[in-house]
Amino acid sequence: MAYGGRGSASMGEVIGIDLGGTKIKAGIMDEQGNLLRKLDMRTPIELGRAGILAALEQLIQSLRNETGARIEAVGIGSAGQIDRCRGTVTFATELLPGWTGTNIKELLQQACGIPVFVENDAKTAALGERWLGAVRDLAHYMFLTLGTGIGGAMIHEGKLLTTPSGGAGNVGHMVLHAQGFSCNCGGRGCFEQYASGTALDASANRIDPRWDSRVLMEKLSVKDERAEHVILRFADDLSAGLVSLHNIYEPQVFVLGGGVMDSYPLWKPYLESSIRKRTRHPIIIVPASLGNDAGMIGAARLAFDEMAL
Ligand SMILES: [Zn+2]
């Protein structure tokens, strides 16, 4: 089923969906940026591809039935690498079992009878931050989520930089240490093995089995030496990644989101000090401001943008 654009003059409401490994969030939004209704549910990963698709369909139908609103389209930000033209998952890790190869667009359009647009979740979050968040209307920036892994997106001249298989901005698997830790992508020494929330939890755990990143931050706030050592390493790895990306792409700013940013004020001085040692260029970091809703809001924006084409 194919849908053409209809022009932006009489755009009504769309559904934005953020599909992650633990939760699916869906909301109805209008083009002024109002979130009119929101629902979420646990991602039924144990049911595999069919179960996840059924959950998406159920959320879409619930929102349509509850509100009676005329929904024009659905935008989805999904974990994994996404072929945006086809709306297909090029690759997803075991965070979403069986998701690789799923043609989300085609299957949901058939099930729901309205246009569906799909993009990677970090990329929709980047669109959300540009629409209603930390970098409104900024033309050239890079967005990174420091969460379970590290997601990334590059905005160039106000638009997402995309490639046919959706790999552009896949910064979590940029190699930081050639002989480093193995990664779930099959590679070694990837950026997300050192600077994600999962990596920070693992580093804390190596100090003391009872520690995770939350305990680590509590210890850091009272200047515990072991905690400070872990944070120095983390800040050094994160700064190395950011400086490399800056040399490649020279964004006006880096927008950083994800759970690790909850403790940003605590480790910001360490990061800034490490960046200053690596480069003379000013590297500007802006914390994301939409929190966990960024992916869902940006997915709605994606739907509006695609419908207007
Ligand atoms: Zn990797």
UniProtKB/TrEMBL annotation:
Pfam families: ROK. InterPro entries: ATPase_NBD, ROK. Belongs to the ROK (NagC/XylR) family. This is ROK family protein. Transmembrane segments: none annotated. It comes from Paenibacillus montanisoli.
